[in-house]
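The protein record now logged underneath.
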Amino acid sequence: MSGIDFVQVANSYARSREDIPVTLMESLQLRNIFFDGKTIADLGSGTGVLARKMAMRKANVVGIEPSQELLNQAVLLNQMKNFNIPYLLGTAEATGLEDSQFDIVTVLRAWHWFDRPKAIQEIKRILKAKGTLIIIDSGFLSGPDVVEKTLKVIEKYVVSGLTPAGSKADSKMRINGFPVEWFEEWKKEGFEIRDFYKLNYTVSFSKEEWVERVESISWLAGLDESVRKGALKELTDSLPEGGSFEIPHDCNVCILRLE
């Protein structure tokens, strides 16, 4: 995550990035992805939102995260929520994990930050034969008035304009939000797509919760603290008081099998 400093936003990131659909795990189970007893490496695990959901289903999961600040939050949430998930400081390109030890590798909202060629080789190294790679991305959708106001404020403060994060900015064509280049890379490296699907869902936010959610997105996390605070104040002042904001989201899931 070059250029992104999570020191200032790690707390809000931990509180606001739990917004993945409740149907996600059930949708995987319907596609014969079971977690009980499986060894799983969750790369770019952040504060551990996906790792915890898999651990609840009796997976033996380890989280790999390059940001010490987010890693600290994951460990704190372990204590608060009574988990014992191990979290290790590392990257998708150099996990520090042993060869051929994992049934499944998962990536939630992070593939676009990786050096993909190196990450793919590392994943192939740590996966068992016929292992599974699950790549998930999710986020809010444009349309509602509160989202349009939010994007207008952000555009004023992000000098280069509002662009997709990481490698998404380089892609001119996407399928359900995934750059077409990714599919070509996976196929070239021996990963067969077993399923690719989308889940639509809605998340309810109070005004305070929505501003905190916006604070955690990468467009703002990369700004200087004073600039970021100015943007958040302007956003807060522009939004109505009271009630809740119903924000549509989508979640895109790609299941791949190493052949």
User: Anything to note?
Assistant: The chain has one domain: 10-258. The first helix runs from residue 10 to 16. Residues 1-5, 160-164 have pLDDT under 50 and may be disordered.
